[in-house]
Amino acid sequence: MNSIDHWVDGKYEIILQDLQNDVYDITLGEIGKPETVETIERFVHKETAIRVMNVFSRNFADAIQRGYELTLSSRNFLHSDGRKVHISNSLEIDFNQEQFIALLEEGEFVA
Question: Which carries the bigger pLDDT value, residue 108 or residue 92?
């Protein structure tokens, strides 16, 4: 398993790993806590994996800066005021940064 790319924000680390046989994983975990590492998405095309890694890293940073925390068990970014955004939205390469930020500002309110 080789690391192709990584992103660190001080608490979290996102890693794009080349597993073998054209399989690539984007993983997320807390720095220094290997037990927290989880696979976010798996790909069979390296170019797609790299594009999604770049988009996810940017969107993850935008969510954290706006007061969201990622809950991997529900696969949602959650805000203390009740807003949530599903992680799949942060992996969407057809969403530009402004669209993702607008989604973070609106969110889906949890009843």
Answer: 92
- Domain extents in the chain: 2-109
- The Cα-based distances of 3 to 15, 49, 81 in angstroms read 7, 12, 36
The one-letter amino acid code at 26 reads: I
Tokens at residue 20, please? 């073998």
**CB of 43 within 8 A of CB of 49?**
yes
| Residue length of the chain | 111
Q: Which pLDDT score, from 0 to 100, does residue 109 have?
A: 59
Whether residue 110 is predicted with pLDDT greater than 60 in this model: the reply is no
Name the DSSP class of 37. Answer: -
Query: What's the N-to-C CA distance of the chain in angstroms?
Result: 42
Strand order in the sheet with 76-79: 68-71, 76-79, 83-86, 108-109
